[in-house]
Amino acid sequence: CDHFSCQRMIEIMQDYGEVVLVVGSSLNYFNCSIFGQANCSVTIEPQHPALCSKKIFQNDNGLKSSVIATLLMGLCCDIVVFPNQTLDLISLISFCRHQLGTFRSSFLFFIFSSTALALQQTLA
Fold it and tell me: So which domain of life are we looking at (predicted)?
């Protein structure tokens, strides 16, 4: 299916209250709008055949043009995965839960301290 039908399917699933995770290639231009529409998106730089990888040009900093393209296309994504990188989703989920718990505690501290300061100012 093409990218228009994928976007429509994502829209239908979100209308029914589903949380949509999109995983796709970072070198496909049409995936950018699909990544932006999803609730969570993971972009993966595809493996290049050995013949193609020998001809990839590098700029002055030593970065491959495909890496630069992956980073640019990955701006709209939550997670960018390169071919030589492993991704452990279980540890990533537990880390995100820990970060969310820390954020929740700090937010509650901010609310309670602001309320205490407001009460102190009104009673003084």
Answer: Eukaryota
